[in-house]
Specification:
α1 runs parallel beside α8, α2 packs parallel to α3 and α7 packs across α8. The chain has 9 helices and 14 strands. It has an 8-stranded parallel β-sheet with strand order 2-3-1-4-11-5-10-9, sandwiched between helices. Strands 6-7-8 form a 3-stranded antiparallel β-sheet, with no helix packed on it. A 3-stranded antiparallel β-sheet has the order 12-14-13, covered by helices on one side. The C terminus is likely disordered. β7 and β8 form a beta hairpin. The radius of gyration is 19 Å and the shape is globular. Helix content is 27%, strand content 19%. By secondary structure, the protein is an alpha/beta fold.
């Protein structure tokens, strides 16, 4: 099986994609991609967090390049986790990843169909609404003004992008011929439409036949499709769910400004078994005594209003 490297642009995304890749042989470890980030367990799949989503394009690109530069000559798959709401300097980070890897092409699959986030005609939709007409347009750090994935990429990228539409994805013969046509027309980055998890899996199966290194950019929808297609999904066995051991609990930390996230916290904390506390506004910094691999470094001020929900009693899977 191909070697896999995973990179994310913030801690939340790193944890999201790491959880979605479970169960993975050897486990999954989220680590800080910068200096002193620590070493994951030998058999674990490392998800490296560059904490670069809110940085200027040049600085974000430098972090991504530094994180992937040791992989020069890498002949496997790189999963570059991006925000499904298109926040961040996506083009600059994708350029940096391609430069570091020496990759001749990249594929962007930002859909998460399970939660109503789809890519249609190259436009990112949230429950059928273009992303720039949703609360993502009012994000305090990365307000989104355009639903076109190609346009968002072009804002900070020097590479040509094109769209692999749903008709091509769902063609009986598969999308390989359409991809070849887009590449022949000069596209280097290809944005792939998807309305369902089946669309993502169908596309991923074809992309795994592309030359290495293979650079795939997307969110947890892509991670799920990749896990399934690579055969990491346990056959006949559900993913681990159910109650935690007696006396155990679950700590949830929420640092999002999105109203849906706040509504989720309000719903969960209404349970008698759950306590909620608000962390004081402050910009976190790495403590001098932080263990290697500690992920606080580089957090931005928009993380300054997190809510923490802690289960007091036996916890079920959230």
């Amino acid at each position: 099986m191909d070697a896999l490297r995973v990179l994310a642009d913030d801690l939340t995304g790193a944890c999201d994609v790491g959880a979605e890749l479970l169960p993975w042989r050897g486990g999954v470890a989220v680590v800080w991609a910068g200096e002193g980030g620590g070493t994951p367990p030998p058999q674990a799949l490392a998800v490296r967090n560059t904490q670069s989503r809110t940085l200027a394009p040049a600085l974000a690109a430098a972090r991504v390049h530094a994180a992937l530069a040791p992989a020069g000559g890498f002949g496997g798959i790189v999963l570059k986790k991006i925000d499904t709401g298109l926040r961040g300097v996506l083009g600059a980070e994708l350029d940096a990843a391609m430069d570091a890897l020496g990759a001749g092409e990249a594929f962007v699959l930002p859909a998460i169909p399970e939660v109503g986030r789809t890519t249609e005609g190259g436009r990112q939709m949230i429950a059928g609404v273009p992303v720039h007409e949703t609360p993502f347009a009012r994000d305090p750090q990365n307000p989104i003004h355009d639903a076109s994935v190609c346009a968002v990429l072009a804002a900070t990228s020097r590479r040509a992008a094109a769209v692999l539409d749903l008709a091509a994805v769902r063609a009986p013969e598969g999308p390989a011929a359409a991809i070849a046509g887009l590449r022949a027309d000069g596209a280097v980055v290809i944005v792939c439409d998807a309305q369902t998890e089946g669309d993502l899996e169908r596309t991923v199966r074809v992309l795994l036949g592309r030359p290495r290194p293979l650079l795939l950019a997307g969110s947890i929808g892509l991670a799920r499709a990749l896990r399934r297609v690579l055969g990491q999904e346990p056959v006949g066995q559900p993913r681990a769910t159910g109650p935690a051991p007696a006396g155990a609990g679950v700590l949830c930390v929420m640092g999002s400004a999105h109203p849906t996230a706040h509504a989720q916290v309000a719903w969960r904390s209404s349970a008698a078994s759950c306590a909620r506390s608000r962390c004081p506004p402050a910009r976190p910094s790495r403590p001098a005594t932080a263990p290697r691999g500690w992920c606080a470094t580089g957090m931005r001020s928009h993380w300054s209003r997190p809510w923490c929900a802690r289960r007091r009693a036996t916890a079920s899977s959230l």
